[in-house]
Amino acid sequence: MRTSLFLALIFTLAACSSPQKNMRTVASSESAQADCEDKRVFGKAEAQKCYVKAGSTNKSFFTFKASGTAEEIQYAHGFLLAEEINTGSIEEMLSYFAREEASLGSTKWIFTALKECQMKKLKKSVSKEFLNNISALARGYSDGMKAKGLAVVYTEEDFIFTLLGIEIGNVLGGIAQDQSTSPIKALTKVLGQCGIRVAGAGLSKLLKRFKKEPAHDRKMGCVGLVAPDSVTGQGLIHGRNLDQTPLMKSWAKSPVIYLINEEGRIPYVAAGTAGLIYPGGISGYNQHGLAVSLHQMNTTRWDTTHKEGSAEVVPYLQQRILREAKSIDEAFALVKKTNVFSSWTIFISDSKTQEVASIEVSSHRKVIARRRKNEIMGQSNHYLDPTMQKEHFHGNFAAYIETQSRLLQMEKMLRESSGKIDLDWSMNALASHHDYFEGERSFGRVAVKLSNIMTSIAIPSRGEFWMTVGDKKPAAHSWYVGTKVDFSEMSLNIMGLNKTSTFEKNNDLEESFSYAVSSYLAYKNHDTDKSISDLKKALKLSQREDTSYIYNLARLHMMENKLPEAKEYMDKLLLIKDQFHLYQQALIAMYSARLKQQIGVNSEQEINLLFDEAITIFDKIRVNSLKNKTSEVPDPKTDKIEEARFGHGVPNLEKKIKLINSWKSGKDVKFPSLDFAVND
Predict the structure, then answer these.
(1) Rounded distance between C-alpha atoms, residue 328 and residue 356, angstroms
(2) Crossing angle, helix 183-194 and helix 108-125, to 10 degrees?
(3) Is the whole model's pTM more than 0.70, yes or no?
(4) Which CATH superfamily is domain 220-498 in?
(5) Where are the domains of the chain?
(6) How far, in Å, are 206, 343, 352, 556 from residue 36 at the CA level?
(7) How far apart, in whole angstroms, are the C-alpha atoms of residue 646 and residue 627?
(8) Which of 137, 135, 117, 113 has its CA nearest to residue 125?
(9) How far apart are alpha carbons 677 and 680 in whole angstroms?
(10) pLDDT tens column, 448-460
């Protein structure tokens, strides 16, 4: 049977050897066109390789459309995109976990045992359909590689681990958080699930090392927007940024727009990358005008012990919404009856009814947190329903105000732009570098994050779906390819190219963003010298005293024990400290005091005043956070911290206070690691 499949592909490639071009040029300050040449057909599936050509840019992307059973579609997916899958996200995800394991030294065996224990539970709990689709993808990939005379690199188990890996990250992050806040709870839970061998004395050492990487760096940190027809006049618009640090190098190698028609299901269009069996779990819309995007949370209340075959990873559950639901109510009914492993928000809109809702999901609870009709809505990475507050956490308060800023700023822009919102506006909003609390800055608390790997925009009533191709980093600044979707004909035609116009007259600033991304990647790869070098280039290109760059440069120099250089950068921030969010003021005071103390150029009284200021602010935020405030709109008259909720970042605040007191008492305690993405 497999031989006939090989022959079918060879015959198809021969039949399609004459290039088929689909050229489109859009009005822009930069001439651009989309050129599609390489068409690959297998059964009822078709993949086509295209290029965005604009000046020096020559960036590839794919379209993939398929009909049939879910397994037939996934087999064709693996078969037609085998080479792209081979060098794509599976490679980066497996390498990511391999690096994690290699860095753990003597605790590596515990990590491996814990990972294997939880993978076994996930595989048992997840639906058989999900596992069968992975198996079909893996078989298609294997046969596709062999048909081209190439070595098969990855096994079915590799695909299973990669596509369940996002939940492994959730579990390990949750255990690590428990270990730092409630060690007995962490030990008890691991002991109950994985036995005494894994939960032994080495667990604490393992999790201490794992906790060094911020939990939000392992998750899909995303911002979304929905604008109904009442404010656009052109149909409901649903846009989102996808941010994912572990896939920053691979995602844009082979971005794909998928048009899927599963037998007996609702057809849908979605954005993803080669090898992703749940592109509908990222973003897309279906034939009935339902559009979705997924937003991930951190949680300690994970559960991998569901009844056999009764659970779904939430990205796959969201894809099921596209293929099975015609309304928000039907979507929520599907969510309620399905077990899940961790915490997410499904951001969903209905262009038929002009409704939008956020469905907050955890292993313990599912609620519609917000639901509006003919009104705008934004989405980021924290729960809003009061009953969901214990279902997620933020490792530090900077991460919490970062997701707050992205939501508040997006909704502010949406409200203030009623009547002006269209496709171009949406692209500019998703590429915004405006901090709700502090104004214009490059990164830290802005809509587009350092880890932004893709942006998509759906306009279902017009049959339009737009996706970035990733020719620039962050992706929200790259070219979008626009497609015209016809579900009745199962056609997906390129209709144009577009991109944000915000930085057309400030190319140096936009280039600085790319250097900042490179600096972040270098930092994640433990190359601090390159991180500093690239961030200095970013600062110079920005042609401004960009506070997000300056803060991170100060902290990077601290970590390298280059204290005079660190102090030079931190002094710039200290001079304008009162302009910052209260929490950032405390960070600046804390680190300025420590640098002055170590260099020895200031009086003990002056140093202690700064230390005490930081302690006072941290403690005020800690107390306010524990009061479980529920207001979503911060009040400037109460120090901009009224948005604080139950316990978010409180353990980290307490650690900072303890650290300052250690420094004050003369103890030589190291600087904590920089949380690069959120300027902590």
Answers:
(1) 8
(2) 60
(3) yes
(4) Penicillin V Acylase; Chain A (3.60.60.10)
(5) 220-498, 545-678
(6) 49, 39, 33, 44
(7) 7
(8) 117
(9) 8
(10) 999 999 999 999 9
